[in-house]
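Thought: the user wants the 3D structure for the chain below. I'll pass the sequence to the structure tool as-is, report back what it returns, then summarize two notable features.
Action: structure_tool
Action Input:
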Amino acid sequence: MEQFKTLKDHVYNYIATQIGSGNLLPGERINENVICEELNISRTPVREALIQLSAEGILENKARKGFVVRPMREEDVKEVYQVIGILDGFAAKEACKFLTAQDLADMAFYIETIDLAIKSGNFEMYFRQQETLHNLYINKCGNQTLIDTIRKIKNKLFIRTYDDDAEGKTRQVLYDTNKEHREILRLFKEGDADGLFVYLSETHWTPTLAAYDVIE
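Observation:
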């Protein structure tokens, strides 16, 4: 069951979504007045959400400028990948016994749509679909604290801005990543909980794509 969300939680999610979608860019100042007007709320929950986002390293509180979106260096992204890999792997291990045949069919569908997104060069759709794929089993792990922790850590990553290079290297990297999604699905179908943990923590979330998540 989803935990009750306070007004501060809703503001937190709103700001995190704006960052993740690229509407708020690294180094950009957060305008508290605009958020209050857009959400029709007082300043207090906005300040509380900004303080929490700053404590989690998503924002920086700079003197004379206020809260700004924190840029991500490649080393920062690598560290985030390492932590997500362990947590994502544990979530998959726990979710293994809860997934239904329909869940597995949905995962197969998402994998096919990811291939189509790569083929068409729609890299934003690639990002969204692979997030949906991972969230399907994460949200079924049965541990709300784990779900919330993964979400908060992933909030540190901005929307990926892949370049469609002439050599096709970017697409090949993404196709290879989607092959890993197929392996994850295979492990789920076999009910290999331990294999899922190892594969996600040691293979799938290696920092191969870290450079693509760096926005300074």
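Final Answer: Structure generated. The first strand starts at residue 59 and ends at 62. Strands lie at 59-62, 66-69.
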